[in-house]
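quick one: aspartic acid bound model?
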Amino acid sequence: MNQIHRRRFLGASAIGAGALLTGRAASGRPAPSHGKAHEGDKHRGACVISSGNGLRACDRAWDLMQAGTDPAAAVVEGVGIVEADPNDMSVGFGGLPNEDGVVQLDASVMHGPSQKAGAVGAIENIKHPAAVALKVLTETDHVMLVGEGAKRFAIRHGFPEENLLTDKARQAWLNWKRNASPKDDWLDSDQIIRLKGQQHGAAGPIPFTYGTIHCGAVDQGGDIGATTTTSGLSYKIPGRVGDSPIIGAGMYVDNEVGSAGATGRGEAVIQSCGSFLAVRFMEQGMTPTEACLAVLRHIDSKTKRKDLRDERGRPSFNVAMYALRKDGAFGGAVMRGGDSFSVRDTTGPARRVQCAVLHQ
Ligand code: ASP
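yep, here:
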């Protein structure tokens, strides 16, 4: 989602930030939104929502729920389509690797009726981390397993060990390596010695990228399940865990209220307990869209580092929040730019809905 080219990032001097924060109450608490109507405000009944990359996930989860599958299992099955897709380089198989060239995945899932959660962090060689997180939820007294232990647990439960680094992702990683530091011994893309008859994969500098899928669902009876799964920040320090598997950060469910999830800069979401906060805001009466915007305002107000602000003083990174209320109302919002999220309900195949935007 947000892209930061490392060379520029490392070389950049702190950008003059100032405290030009718009839409924030003097107290630093999120200002109420101005009551603008959004498509999801009026929606009622069963519904599945997801980040923009989840159209197919929504449809799959919806069909499963119609057939009686629990919302938590349905969303995990839905995001499994994206985890298995080598063309989505932000999730599962084909996800961009860490700085050592190893794909490490994070995922979480929560089951509303039992308030039980499951999660895995920095798991390697397992294509479907959300399904492993569901096993943690259903089969253990724990909430989170990480690294080698998570992998062993998955293998014990029948998940195959697989190489997740596709050729495309490996080329992207090699390209990043060669652009990573001006002091290393790698040649830049434009310096590479081209040998006759040889193809070079490196096309140009590769930025850091974020990307993830969140999916939340409420069934006819008002029961809720949600999941978030990702390969996390590309080229991250090995062992770095983002917000996606952190309950209350990248995903949260309260069966009495609703669910929420996040994509984008995980560090900002963790430090603001973003998804938990969105659910609490809905509990206080905000619509899902208002709750998402309020979380983004909160993240904005808590971004103290000047290097994380642009020349206008706004956060230079992006975060997207998605929220679903128990009665079926839904919403999504992004910190900056524009984006859409996916929605499936009785009206037909999953469709895209525009996110509200905090900073146009
Ligand atoms: N939130 C994820 C992370 O920080 C990445 C993303 O959503 O783009 O790991």
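The CA atoms of residues 260 and 338 lie 19 Å apart.
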